[in-house]
Amino acid sequence: MRFYVLFFLVAIGAGSLRAQDECELILTRAADEFNAGHFYDTPSLLKGCLDKNQSAEWRQRAYLLLSETYLLVDDPVGAESSYLKVLQANPEYVPDEKIDPIDLVYLSSKFTATPIFTLFAKVGPNVSPVHVVSHRETTTSEGKYKLMPGVQLGVGADWNYDDNISATLEAHYVFSGYKYRVTGVFEKDVIEMYDRQSWIKFPLSVKYQANQGKYRPYGYVGYSVDLLIGDRATITLEDNNLDEGGIQTKPGESPVYKIQPKRNTFNRSMFVGGGVKYKLGLQYAFIDVRYALGLTNLVDVDNNIFNYENSSDKTSPDFQTSGEIALRWGLVDNFFRMDNLSVSVGYVYPLYKPRKLKKARSKSVFRSIKKQSNEAPQE
Amino acid sequence: MRLLRNSVVLFLLLSWSSCDTKGDFEGDFKNYFLKYFGEDGNQFAVDMHVNDDGTIMILGRSETPVGPKRIFLVKTDSEGNVLWTKKFGGYPGFPSDDEYPQDLEAIGDGNFYILTNVLLGKDISTNEDIFDFKVIRVSGDGDRIDSLVFGNNNSKWSTQFAHSLTVLSNGGFAIAGNSQDETLYGEPTASLPPPDIEDIFYLAYTTNYTVMWNSVEFNDPYAISLGEYEGSGVRVFEKNLNEFYFFAYSDGLDGTPGDTYEPNFNTFYGSGNGLPLGPVRFAGRKTTYDVLASVIELPGPLGGGYLEIGTSSSLTGTFGELYFSRRTNSLSPVNEGTVNISGDFSAAAAAPSITSDGFLILATEQLPGGTTIRLVKTDLAVREIWSANFGTFNKENTGAQVTELPDGRILVLGTVELETQKKIALIKVNQNGEFLN
């Protein structure tokens, strides 16, 4: 049984290869006929193979031959239709003004395959610098924020206004964190809070990017709506006391507190960033660096010590528990904004859309031809 | 292209202008705050005084791992930020004995009296603690000016514990307290009296520490006793230098049917030499131990008079209901009863709420795993309007003092037990007891 299946697959593969070889010969013959001036034979020669599933490279060459043929037999509709097929086979095909016929170059100016939308996905690490807006220390002490690593995942889409400018909408999941270390509490004690946050962010930006070359740098600026969907904190304590034996430390560590109710859910940020896209066939890989400037105070002004929003009874156990960070660990959050520096690597998948332009870009073609004429040696 | 560029620039400018800045939170942590004070070990809140300039003097007790218990004095600005801290303590001949500060009162000349009790040891015959009280006069900067050591009434008393100090119009002061030296007064006469445990005393001094009067010795061999087995002087109020009001709790019998030897609130007035005059007025329930904790003189806008607040419990020394008694300027009863809140409490302090026609009552509430600070706002009939608790429910938190600030905000002083240590906590909340603007 296994033998028959293998035989069947080999037979299909061999048949396919044979068909491709035949079509390659036919394309060569059609090109020969074209070069011999037998333009009217070319479409009928190629028709049989065009109806079959050929490689993109073969289709590009075949339809290019047809486009030139139709141009010469004065069939503009056929030429445009064939050139559109060329772009479908290879969206990045551009005629070479130096070697391709001028009428083909002109025809190409009526078309574009620039993607209207480009999809991408990315992932990478981040850190979140904290900027205190209002200090709210409970003791005479000194507090410092420490960067902690986070990670972000994102997907997005560019709407391409033209070859260089695009508007980008993204959706990110961001895990960020920081530590707040307070020293000199009651002279010798140290309190440290490790705050971990989960975000869903919706950045919207305007991007400028290069559209030529293997490496294509870009830069952007934008605005983001950031939803804080989760926030957990752990507090550690070193209660240091001097006794006859020297400094004695009583350590303490809190349970994990869910402090999202002490935070504002809806936040905003501005960001700037840039990176380089590296061309991989028709897609790209990229590396991106972004700095987002937090615009809003993350701390809920009304519920940061006790959760008043969800408690009408200010003596209930739940209400008292909501104040544990302040009344058990001695910490009250400063009001703060949080920035985010991220580095991401990702993959771009352009959604090429070959189409005829409403207005041909013929000016640039004529400019180029004129330039070539001027550069040609004078006899 | 230019339109796009201008749009982006405008967009960024608008975004940046919406950035939260310090100016957006100007009142925050000034209109309300939570501040802790302390050093190594545990520190306990005792009393506070708000100065006319908004600064706050806080009296506490510090218990560090090394050395004896000491008086801990803190001055803060109006936002609770520490300006300085000072420590006092030591007793002539007993420099390492523990201090138990009890009261902080402004004299009126910028200086303060600190009332403290010093634990001198134990009476080996009775196993009772031996205390002596001191009064320390300090400047507004916390510098010691001078002090008085009572010396157990020239060693005629074996011990006494002073509970409050009242500044008198002549710059002197009156002390209210009790003593476990049962010889201060004679045993009350009863068929089956319990053992005499505590006797009440009041004392008054001039500004140069000369005795003005002694409620016990001016009436030798025994002053007019309230007939107490247990009880204490709680506070003295001066009407003028010839007339004083005394507030106490004791188990003196009021002579009405069914009366038993269990503490009630007692009030009486005395002459310029501390001699009790007139009838003793009682408040409290006949079946409960009604222990007076604090008395405040009510301002004119609230009708004047006095408000007594204490704890009413079925067993002595335990938590119970909050009990109040309101009296007129001439000590006539207005009303009395329990504050209508559920739970088990120990009363700590009370304060008038002029801005909202009512009272603030501070207590320690007993919970299954610990105690918490309970702040109760009442109307003029001492009915609860709202309550708020401060402190983690499974730790030991205690209320010490409460006051209403001129803008109606409330300042609470208490001891909060953090994860590993107890600290003095100064809490400022809004008119509804909330950490909100």
Please describe what this structure looks like.
The complex is a heterodimer of chains A (379) and B (437). Chain A has 379 residues and is α+β, with helices and mostly antiparallel strands. Chain A has helices spanning 2-35, 42-50, 56-72, 76-89, 102-108, 317-322, 324-327, 362-375, and strands at 111-112, 117-127, 130-134, 142-160, 165-185, 189-209, 215-243, 246-253, 257-258, 266-280, 283-294, 335-338, 340-351, 355-356. Chain A folds into two domains: 2-113; 117-351, Lipocalin (Beta Barrel), CATH 2.40.128. Chain A is 28% helix and 43% strand. In chain A, strands 2-4-5-6-7-10-11-13 form an eight-stranded antiparallel barrel. A two-stranded antiparallel sheet of chain A has the order 1-14. In chain A, strand 5 (165-185) and strand 6 (189-209) form a beta hairpin. Chain A is rod-shaped and about 105 Å long. In chain B, the strands form seven sheets. A four-stranded antiparallel β-sheet of chain B has the order 1-28-27-26, with no helix packed on it. Chain B has a four-stranded antiparallel β-sheet with strand order 2-3-4-5, with no helix packed on it. The model of chain B has no long low-confidence stretch (mean pLDDT 90). The longest helix of chain B has 16 residues, at 2-17. Chain B has helices at residues 2-17, 151-155; strands spanning 33-37, 42-50, 56-63, 70-76, 82-88, 98-106, 112-123, 128-138, 144-149, 161-167, 173-179, 199-205, 211-214, 231-240, 243-250, 264-271, 276-283, 289-297, 306-313, 321-327, 333-338, 344-353, 358-367, 370-379, 384-390, 398-404, 410-417, 422-429. In chain B, strand 4 (70-76) and strand 5 form a beta hairpin. Chains A and B meet through strand 7, strand 8, helix 6 and helix 7 of A and helix 1, strand 1 and strand 25 of B.
